DNA sequence: GCGACAG
DNA sequence: ATCTTGTCGC
């Protein structure tokens, strides 16, 4: 009985302190959100776009993190940069780190953003000519409970145009699976592969996109920073060879590869 | 009160 | 995120 009560109060304290921490995180998200730019804000143009006197988009970045199955706190953040026209890799970098911040839905940025910002900063410091003009992030932008997901967070902090790519739907403003499924089915016959994600409030949070013919499961595109949804959608479409756009897909593949090699090395050491 | 909840 | 086999199709 006494143990039961004691445990309960400890849990209560834990719960309270984590609630406090979440409140700090919420405040930080609310503050950063004031700097968010949700329209095109860059000097380049898309191919065939009539923007006189500006260079075409050339370098598209992608970011992802993979985790060790042996020790889930060990992670590898990977940044790749692809040539927009050829989708060939022109740059890659890895950051092997130990993460102490847990994943909490709605607060992904506090876990993953520092890793990405570190790799970006390193690249910028060295004046690397392949520094991305726009960055795709594995996670949502404004498609988020407070309209400020991972893609917005890194976009504002790195002052870089960013696009959020979700592989599953984060439920926001009445947007849940059955509602999106209905929207998809309704538009399916009209051969549209983009479905605006309009919530109950009437706000457009992003688009669901059937990126490849083989998969019925959509990806969820939302703006991060300094880009319009229309431009973001066009860029994602132009970089999709498979369901996941190439920048994210390459980052994912190479990140997993890095972790696997690390684990292999660890095994070899252990055995002899 | 219960369930839902990007990666 | 990660664990996991085969399987269907171009």
From TrEMBL:
Residues 1-13 have a biased composition (Acidic residues). Keywords: Cytoplasm, Endonuclease, Hydrolase, Nuclease. Its main location: cytoplasm. Gene3D superfamilies: archaeoglobus fulgidus dsm 4304 superfamily. Pfam families: Endonuclease_5 (PF04493). It is found in: Cytoplasm. GO terms for molecular function: RNA endonuclease activity producing 5'-phosphomonoesters, hydrolytic mechanism; single-stranded RNA binding. One of its GO terms (cellular component) is cytoplasm. Coiled coil: none annotated. InterPro entries: Endonuclease-V. Residues 1-23 are annotated as: Disordered. One of its GO terms (biological process) is DNA repair. PANTHER family: ENDONUCLEASE V. HAMAP family: Endonuclease_5. This is Endonuclease V. It comes from Vicia faba (Broad bean). The lineage of its organism: Eukaryota, Viridiplantae, Streptophyta, Embryophyta, Tracheophyta.
